[in-house]
Design brief:
The complex is a heterodimer. By secondary structure, chain A is mainly alpha-helical. Helix content of chain A is 54%, strand content 0%. In chain B, a hairpin with a 2-residue loop joins strand 2 and strand 3. Classes of the chains: A mainly alpha, B alpha+beta. The interface between A and B is medium-sized, with 28 and 39 residues.
């Protein structure tokens, strides 16, 4: 890529952007709820929870009490 | 692929596309998951706290910061590491702007170590790397924490409570030596780095 070329994001090209859908199609996709969003949020929260458990049991507890 | 026309902007979808029952069901499930996670975390903390006797350092002991250097256990000759009759070590430290006294602590490895620290002026922080020791040094109070260094090494010990313009330079060192090398306590009977 030439440095003097103007920068465009990937979304600049229509080939990289999903086609907009109509209201009926969207309603059909969402009839059982926003499952994709739930999956993404669940994965993020699940990883956070596993991270908490890992810090607690692999770092905090082995270092022992201080009192 | 739908024709986007000359501009890629399209009118937003209308509100209420997701059925109300689906939203309510998702919210209930999410709430249940959150409550379950909180319950697990609380159970873990309480169970390990009871089993391992984990608790915050709760030593409440007052001391007069005005006469700290003149009498009592924090006079200069008594600072450093003392070995108790049971073989454990007691380290006495003063925090003051902008240094810890002694500047370098010498402690034995694989030995119960009790730190007693107070401040001569304002609030300082006291933490030891690779341990759970982390407390404040508050003028007028003696903080007491216990730990056990598993292996020898040289550690830094920064003040972690902002205490003034020289705060970032307030460091001390902790030199952990094998317990069999921890011999000479020096003329005062209190070990520091400069006694060995």
């Amino acid at each position: 890529m030439q440095l003097d070329e103007p920068h465009h994001s990937a979304a600049h090209s229509r080939d990289n952007v999903a086609a907009p859908i109509g209201a009926d199609e969207a309603a059909r996709a969402l009839k059982d709820g926003a499952t994709g969003a739930v999956v993404v949020a669940g994965a993020a929260v699940g990883l956070l929870f596993l991270g908490w458990l890992a810090f607690y049991f692999l770092l905090f507890v082995p270092r022992g009490p201080i009192g | 692929m739908a024709d986007l026309g000359s501009h890629p902007s399209v009118p937003p979808l209308r509100d209420g596309l997701v059925p109300r029952q689906a939203v309510a069901r998702t919210e209930k499930r999410w709430l249940a998951i959150m409550l379950a996670m909180l319950a697990v975390m609380m159970a873990v903390v309480v169970a390990t706290g009871i089993v391992g006797s984990l608790h915050p350092s709760s030593n409440v002991e007052v001391i007069d910061p005005v006469t700290l250097h003149l009498k009592g256990e924090f006079v200069e000759s008594n600072l450093g590491t003392a070995i108790e009759p049971d073989g454990s070590a007691t380290v006495r430290i003063i925090a003051q702007q902008y240094e810890f006294v002694p500047r370098c602590l010498l402690v034995p490895a694989a030995t119960p170590v009790k730190f007693r620290i107070t401040s001569a002026d304002l609030v300082h922080g006291f933490m030891l790397p690779y341990t759970n020791v982390n407390t404040m040094a508050v003028p007028g109070f003696v903080a007491e924490v216990r730990t056990n260094f598993a292996s020898p090494g040289e550690y830094v010990m920064p003040c972690h409570e902002f205490c003034g313009l020289g705060h970032q330079a307030m460091w001390a060192n902790v030199r952990v030596v094998p317990s069999e090398q921890f011999g000479d306590l020096g003329p005062t009977g209190r070990a520091r780095c400069d006694t060995q």
